[in-house]
Amino acid sequence: MRRLFPVFPDLPAALDDREWGLDELADVYAYPEPSEYAGGGAVDAGRTGAWLRANMVTSLDGAAYHEGRSQPLSCAADMRIFGVLRALADAVVVGAETVRQEGYRPARAREAFQARRAALGQPPAPAIAVVSAGLTLDFTAPLFTEPLVPTLVLTGASAPTERVAAARAAGAEVIVAGEGARVDPVRVVTALAERGFTRLLTEGGPTLLGQFTAAGVLDELCLSLAPLVAAGDASRIASGPPVTAPERFVLASVMEEAGFLFTRYRRT
Q1: How confident is the model at residue 44 (pLDDT cuts 50, 70, 90)?
Q2: Residue 41: CB partners within 8 Å, gap ≥ 6?
Q3: pTM for the predicted model, two decimal places
């Protein structure tokens, strides 16, 4: 892996094509200091009390997945970064359809990040936070029955009562984050922040990322560009309601390995 941007003249080794250590990757992808995002709750100013980062992969022709899953677009380096991003987060926020399609399991504790997480007051592994209006989830799956940290479910106020009861019986914490059947993406972020989950990572899918984008609460995008052409009718990485005007992000870093580009953009 090579760092293409930024390049530091006093660190020429960054240009070497080598496998980066987990600590090096964790430093590159470290969350900003809480002073940059915490407090105030002024959503119109982008201050929700949390930092919401997205991690997505796309093909050269814009496909977010192939045959329903993102794994065919990935590679070993992408999965290494995927693991690092999870290890840095307080909670991983994911849509119900992605949970079903990708067969989500609980996040695991990783010894390599134990000291780093302890120093930040984080539990051994991030919580998985599932966003679901209808709660059509398999509450007998390991995601709910075997998590190291209890799984969170964010839903609307009128979610089916029997499904809410099933989620709680499985050990999940149910959080109301919307009126009626709708889940409000802004309330998803603020509700998690109120519970101490301020370093947030969303892995999509495209519908959920589109909602976060349209709501103006996405702070950072980590985008892996795969040197593959997928064709087909797969959606973009973000789909759903349009924004009034495209929001500007700035490039923070670019790394490359085997033709894959690993980019990181931050909202201005």
Answers
A1: very low
A2: 47, 48, 49, 190
A3: 0.93
